[in-house]
Amino acid sequence: MRLSQMLFVTLKESPAEAVIPSHQLLLRAGYIRRIGSGIYSYLPLMWRVLQKVSQIVREEMNATGAQECLLPQLQPSELWKESGRWDTYTKAEGIMFAFEDRQGREVALGPTHEEVITTVAKESIRSYRQLPQHLYQIQSKFRDEIRPRFGLMRGREFIMKDGYSFHADEESLKKTYADMDVAYRNMFRRCGLDFVAVEADSGAIGGSGSQEFMVLADAGEDEVLYTEDGKYAANVEKATSLPPDAVESPFEKFEKRETPNTPTIASLAEFAKCSPTNIVKNVLYEAVGDNGKLILVLVSIRGDRDVNEVKLQNELSKMASEFGAKTLLSLTVPEAEAMQKWAAQQLPTGYISPDLSDDYLQKSKDIHPKFVRFADETVAEMKNFVTGANEPGYHVFGANWGKEFTLPSRVVNLQKSVAGDRALHDSQQVLKSARGIEVGHIFQLGTKYSAAMEATFTNEQGEELPLVMGCYGVGVSRLAQAAVEQSHDKDGIIWPVAIAPYHAIIVVPNISDSEAMAAAEKLYAEMNQAGIETLLDDRDARAGFKFKDADLIGIPYRIVTGRSLKQGKVEVVQRATKEAQEIAIEDVVATLKGWMENAIAS
Ligand code: ATP
Ligand code: MG
């Protein structure tokens, strides 16, 4: 492609809307244009990158035997009502674009395709003989993200590869899941990314496995906790660890004491001259079921630890039917104003004890009549602890489970692991924290969708069973930008060769120099012929300006038909290292081919 003929516009300054380098660079280098909030046009250079990423994804998927298809983006509400997700996706998280067509039918734009594919499977799969099956597609997804940001990182329309597998049993699912783990590692390695696979939250579905693939970068929205021995890495939402050892409590006698102005753990520990590990903190949460029911939750946890709300949400979701609900719509720490909806009397906020009476709840059919009480694992072993006295300005000291307080029957791990905690697999290993960009997610779904939507098959014994499912996603457009976030310098993008829009760019410093032009034209033809995808900068502009653009757009190899032409040579510059060398014109193709092979294989 000749730059003189291409829609090629670079910007000197980075637009104010962009805060992270990759977003700034993609805008400045003319790869993308913002059309609306979270909506982007992929211009020709970007589209080439996206196609290269897609092709790598496709090759790795096909190698596992998965079959490519294309499912509709427009999805009727009936499917989502069958699976039970219509309300959660249109109301609670509200992430699905849903509307009515002219006949008054409800439809939505696909944020994901479990419902569609399960319907296909339901109609096409009858017998275990047809299993396993794995279908995937690469297409635009729509999600009404509450905070679209960072360009392609969190868009409202973005490109995803999503695949869904169907199995007769868990064992077969696990095999495909393991194949996907390998395929994903291959894809990301081939795309030139530095990534880690981390244990991920599987939501309320549980299931034995869910793994995310993270590109490590400061701009990442996820936090990853890992150990340096390489044996543990998890999304903070899922992470577990050994909490620090508790300090022995100095309070041997049970008593209630006045503790003015101590509503926080820090203020209380200071006032009582004790460690936060001597304090049982009681945190109040308000959950809302999809039946509109308010559920008040009290979590008792050691004073130095915080509640991991993802873990709490999962525990509560498992109990949804006890509240007459199918799912939970939200989980929040209620503000004073919100408390008025359900509190029968003023709560002793900041001084709550684990046995806060259910009489604090209004009696109403819309309010679950009892606090749902949880104890984090950290508190079960605590002795002689300090906790609230249910009276503002007062705490009790030297309290014990089984004496003054009853340990809640639900003792689970609800704590948030933090950097510095010791690892469970080896207490010598300390968790470290890094930021990650989630580029892929593989998930053992089990029978959640097949059971709800009655997608069944007949096994060898003639029994009818729900299909066992897995799902596997790659954020194609997010991945492309993540590559830039990970690989750039002050002058611009440094594309990994495998996903660069073009491999090489020939810059003619002065287009009125007919010899230089002729040499460039000849090389341009030869290189393209040899499979080196090449741009020709034949614009009537200053050499320095063209070099700047070449650096900005990040093409791996730059060839300059300059002064050394007299000796039959051109200057070849590698974008990543800025290393320049003079190469005889007749050797250019072979040299670049060699470099490309090395770069793409590694
Ligand atoms: P996130 O936690 O970042 O919102 P998710 O877990 O909801 O993502 P999945 O449903 O697992 O996303 O989707 C599969 C992949 O699609 C993700 O791993 C991610 O790479 C990509 N993706 C998800 N949401 C977006 C988005 N709004 N913009 C760009 N890519 C996205
Ligand atoms: Mg995910």
Instruction: From the alpha carbons, calculate the radius of gyration and give it in angstroms.
Output: 29 Å
Quaternary form? single chain
Average of the residue pLDDT scores: 95
How many helical elements? 15
Model description:
Helices cover 26% and strands 27% of the residues. The longest helix is centred in the first third of the chain and has 21 residues, at 170-190. It is built from 15 helices and 31 strands. The strands form eight sheets. Strands 3, 7, 8, 9, 10, 11, 12, 21 and 24 form a nine-stranded mixed β-sheet that branches. Bound molecules: adenosine-5'-triphosphate and magnesium ion.
Explain briefly what this protein structure is.
With 602 residues, the chain is of the alpha+beta class.
Secondary structure layout:
Blueprint: H1 21-28, E1 32-36, E2 39-42, H2 44-63, E3 67-68, E4 74-76, H3 77-83, H4 86-92, E5 97-100, E6 106-109, H5 114-124, E7 133-142, E8 157-167, H6 170-190, E9 195-199, E10 210-216, E11 222-226, E12 233-235, E13 255-258, H7 265-272, E14 280-289, E15 294-302, H8 309-318, E16 328-332, H9 336-339, E17 372-376, H10 377-380, E18 385-388, E19 394-399, E20 410-412, E21 432-446, H11 448-453, E22 456-458, E23 464-466, E24 468-475, H12 476-486, E25 488-489, E26 492-493, E27 504-507, H13 514-529, E28 534-537, H14 543-553, E29 557-560, E30 569-574, E31 580-584, H15 588-601
Parallel strand pairs: 3-7, 15-17, 17-20, 27-28, 27-29
Antiparallel strand pairs: 1-2, 4-6, 5-6, 7-8, 8-24, 9-10, 10-21, 11-12, 11-21, 13-19, 14-15, 14-16, 18-19, 21-24, 22-23, 25-26, 29-30, 30-31
Helix pairs in contact: 1-12, 2-6, 2-12
The structure holds adenosine-5'-triphosphate and magnesium ion.
